[in-house]
Amino acid sequence: MDKEKNVDISIIMPAYNTEKYIREAIDSICKQKEPNVELIIINDGSTDNTEKIIEEKMKEYDNIRYFKQENSGLSYSRKVGLDHSRGKYIYFVDSDDYIYDNSLLEMFNYAEKNNLDCLMVNARFQNELDNEYGYRMDKKNVVSKMDTTEITTGENLLLEMIKNREWRYAVWLYFIKKEELERVTFFKDFIHEDSAFNYELLNKLKRIQFVDKDVYVYRLRENSLMSTKTSIKNILGYINSYMIIYNTNNKKDLKYEPMLFEMRIFDQIIESYGLLGNDKELAKKEIVKLKPLLEKRHYYYVDKYRDFLLDLNDVKTDNTSKLNQLDYIDYLEVDIVDHCNLNCNDCTHYSPLAEPNFMDALSFEKDIKRLSELTNGKINSMVLMGGEPLLHKDINKFIRIVNKYLPDTRLQILSNGILIDKMDDDFWNTCKECNVQINITPYPINMDYYKVFNKILDNGLDMFIYDNGQTKDKKFDRIEYDYSKSQDLLSNYLECNMAKNCANLKNGRIYICPIVNNIDRYNNNYGTNLEVLENDYIDIYDINSGKEIYDFLAKPVPFCGYCDVKQKKKVLWKRFKEEE
Question: Under DSSP, is residue 429 helix (H, G, I), strand (E, B) or coil?
Answer without folding.
Answer: helix
